[in-house]
């Protein structure tokens, strides 16, 4: 596991993260799911995707809306 200033990097399962975005969970709900701070989620998303949380969330939640409409 990589470290950052002596502290282990919080591992985030990005498949789960993307599913939570599909369900349109808020940043605070996603942080609670992974038992970490909102700042940690924002930082890890930026590292993984090279974009801000808001940019990634906006793109991923659209697919959730499509799925919801299809179900209706």
Provide a concise account of the structure shown.
The protein is mainly alpha-helical. 65% of the residues lie in helices and 6% in strands. Strand 1 (3-4) and strand 2 form a beta hairpin.
Could you describe the 3D structure shown?
This protein has 72 residues and is mostly helical. The chain contains four helices and two strands, in the order E-E-H-H-H-H. Strands 1-2 form a two-stranded antiparallel sheet. Helix 1 crosses helix 4 and helix 2 packs across helix 3. 11% of the residues are buried. The mean pLDDT is 87.
Unreliably modeled segments: none
**Terminus-to-terminus distance:** 43 Å
Q: What is the chain-wise order of helices and strands?
A: EEHHHH
**What portion of the residues fall into strands of 2 or more residues?**
5-15%
How much helicity do the residues have? Answer: 55-70%
Shape: elongated
Q: Give the class from helix and strand content and strand pairing.
A: mainly alpha
Radius of gyration (Å): 13 Å
The number of helical segments is: 4
């Amino acid at each position: 596991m990589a470290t950052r200033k002596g502290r282990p990097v919080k591992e985030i399962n990005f498949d789960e993260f993307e599913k939570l975005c599909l369900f349109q969970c808020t940043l605070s709900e996603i942080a609670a799911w992974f038992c970490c701070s909102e700042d940690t989620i924002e930082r890890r998303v930026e590292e993984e995707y090279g974009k801000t949380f808001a940019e990634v969330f906006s793109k991923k939640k659209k697919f959730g809306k499509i799925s919801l409409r299809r179900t209706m």
